[in-house]
What does this fold into?
Amino acid sequence: MSAQTEITKRKTVRDIANGKGKAPVVCLTAYTAPMARLLDPHADVLLVGDSLGMVVHGLSSTVGVTLEMMILHGRAVMRGSNQALVVVDLPFGSYEESHEVAWRSASRVMMETGCQAVKVESGEGIADTIAFLVDRGIPVMGHVGLRPQAMNVDGGFRAKGRTKAERDRVLREALAADRAGAFAIVVEGVAEDIAAEVSSLVRAPTIGIGASAKCDGQILVTDDMLGMFPWTPKFVRRYADLGNIIDQAAAHYAQDVRERTFPAEAETYVLKRAP
Ligand code: KIV
It folds into this structure.
């Protein structure tokens, strides 16, 4: 069945948007079909985040991620899931130039992956684009606070809200995305009081990452919470230590191969000879 003809029982953007004030929204990133299959029963939203550039492709930021990469991984996550709402990030350079460019990128992502929504990092200047897309049938998730695609302007990945100007800006960005019709808004890298203010002011549910418990839902980069990297940011809770488990398994395998104890008889085909 093609991406466009999937008959779906997935959660919808309405389910997420109408959930504000009810149960917290559970979101995780997913980039591959097998991981999507494992996460799908537990998550309301699977985000195919452009963090895949760093997590899967070894880039130093998300700036080098292309639309083709997002579409490839978006299709894989759609194949591996069947109940969560799947949102795909629009990567840097694919939506900022004009409404028309954003429309072409977002409609490609929707049509070629079958996902139900896109996410944009929404500085104030992007609010119009959100309204343009929503008006034409593309649900949009906003993303305010620390915006990884703006890391070259910010001089790195820095939490937001140290100054009043920065704090006001996060509030303005969130309100602009909300008014433009975003069905949910990721709030990244802000202190608890800012998260609380944003969450109380906007109609859309806020999804926090490094933004305290004062959000309407939470998202983590799955590989972070599974302990796939030696370093874990302060806001991440490690729910597993897969990095060490994989290291030990690979070391054990290497030893068995070198000692010729793998494969053993039980792992070897014994085929009847054809006459
Ligand atoms: O790209 C991503 O994974 C994200 C989340 C961290 C929210 O945008």
Remarks:
- Residues 164-180 form the longest helix (17 residues).
- The beta strands are 25-29, 45-48, 85-89, 117-119, 140-145, 184-188, 206-209, 217-220.
- DSSP finds eleven helices and eight strands in the chain.
- Residues 100 and 129 are 9 Å apart (CA to CA).
